[in-house]
Specification:
Layout: H1 14-22, E1 27-31, H2 35-43, E2 48-51, H3 55-58, H4 70-83, E3 88-92, H5 102-115, E4 119-123, H6 128-137, E5 142-147, H7 153-156, H8 166-182, E6 186-190, H9 194-203, E7 208-212, E8 220-223, H10 225-228, H11 250-262, H12 269-272
Parallel strand pairs: 1-2, 1-8, 2-3, 3-4, 4-5, 5-6, 6-7, 7-8
Helix pairs in contact: 2-4, 4-5, 5-6, 6-8, 8-9
This protein binds 3-methyl-2-oxobutanoic acid (KIV).
Length: about 270
C-alpha cells in the first residue's frame, strides 16, 4: 500500500465553515464510514465528512437506517477519525439514541465526540429544538436534519419529497427557524423542492444549510459517497450525479464533486432538483 502524497491543509473548524458561508464559498460534504474512504475524501479537499447512519444500508446491508446502533456509529466514527486529517467530522445520532430524553442525547453525543466527531447530527423538527438547545448550551455543535428524515421513513410513508404543499413547506420553515434559534449551526435539508430550501436559507441567513435533493440555493451540498461513485447498485436517485462516469480514479471523481459544488455547476436545477 502506498501512502498518498498531498499537501496537508489546515483543519476545517466551525469558525472556518462560518467564514466560508459568510463569503458565499459553498461547503462540500460527503459521507465516509471507514479510514480509507475518509482519507480519500479528506485529501480531495472535501470540507466535511458525514459519518452517516446511511451506513446501515451501505455497509451493513439493511433496508433502512433504523437498525443502526450507537455502538455502530461510535465504531465507524473512530475508523473515520483515524483516516481523516483536516475535514470537519459530523457524526449521526442513530435512531433511538436521542428521542427519550435530553440527557440520553447528551450521553450519545459524548460517545460520538470522544470517538472523533466534531459535530453531531440529529433528525427532525418540533420537539428536537429543546434537545438542540440543551446540547449546544453544553458545548456540542449540532447539525439539524429536516425534510426527508430517513429514521422516520415508516411514519413518512416512504422516501418521498417533503414540503411539496403549502402547509408542508410552512411547517419545514417553522421547524428550521426554531432549530436555528435553538442553536443549530448547520442543517441538512433532504429531498424537498428547491424553492422551499431557498426559503429556509433566506429565513435563516446565518444557518449553514447543506442540501441533498434540495436544489442549488443551500450553503453547501452533501451526497452519499457510494452513490456519487456509482458503486451502490440500482437506479441512482434524480438528485445524484455520477461523478465516476467521466473516468479516472475515485480521487478524481471526488475532486470533480468538490469543484462542481464550489463553482455552482452541481446541483443543476434542470437535472438534479425538484
Ligand atoms: O446518513 C446519511 O448519510 C445522511 C445523508 C443522507 C444526509 O444523513
Amino acid at each position: 500500500m502506498t501512502a498518498a502524497v498531498s499537501a496537508v491543509r489546515k483543519p476545517v473548524t466551525l469558525h472556518r465553515l462560518r467564514e466560508m458561508h459568510a463569503q458565499g464559498d459553498k461547503i462540500t460534504m460527503l459521507t465516509a464510514y471507514d479510514a480509507t474512504f475518509a482519507r480519500l475524501v479528506d485529501e480531495a479537499g472535501v470540507d466535511c465528512i458525514l459519518v452517516g447512519d446511511s451506513l446501515g444500508m451501505i455497509v451493513q446491508g439493511h433496508g433502512s437506517t433504523i437498525p443502526v446502533s450507537l455502538e455502530d456509529m461510535v465504531y465507524h466514527t473512530r475508523c473515520v477519525a483515524r483516516g481523516n486529517r483536516s475535514a470537519w467530522i459530523v457524526g449521526d445520532l442513530p435512531f433511538g439514541s436521542y428521542q427519550e430524553s435530553r440527557e440520553e442525547a447528551l450521553r450519545a453525543c459524548v460517545a460520538l465526540m470522544q470517538a472523533g466527531a466534531h459535530m453531531v447530527k440529529l433528525e427532525g423538527g418540533g420537539w428536537t429544538a429543546e434537545t438542540v438547545h440543551f446540547l449546544t448550551e453544553r458545548g456540542v455543535p449540532v447539525c439539524a436534519h429536516l425534510g426527508l428524515t430517513p429514521q422516520s421513513v415508516h411514519a413518512l410513508g416512504g422516501y418521498r419529497i417533503q414540503g411539496r404543499d403549502e402547509a408542508g413547506a410552512a411547517t419545514l420553515r417553522k421547524h428550521a427557524t426554531e432549530l436555528a434559534q435553538a442553536g443549530a449551526a448547520m442543517m441538512v435539508l433532504e429531498l424537498m423542492p428547491s424553492a422551499v430550501a431557498a426559503q429556509v436559507q433566506a429565513d435563516n441567513p446565518g444557518m449553514m444549510t447543506i442540501g441533498i435533493g434540495a436544489g442549488s440555493q443551500t450553503a453547501g451540498q452533501v451526497l452519499v459517497l457510494h452513490d456519487m461513485l456509482n458503486i451502490t447498485r440500482g437506479k441512482l436517485p434524480r438528485f445524484v450525479r455520477n461523478f465516476a462516469a467521466e473516468g479516472g480514479s475515485a480521487d478524481d471523481a471526488i475532486r470533480r464533486y468538490v469543484a462542481a459544488v464550489k463553482d455552482g455547476s452541481f446541483p443543476d436545477e434542470a437535472v438534479h432538483a425538484y
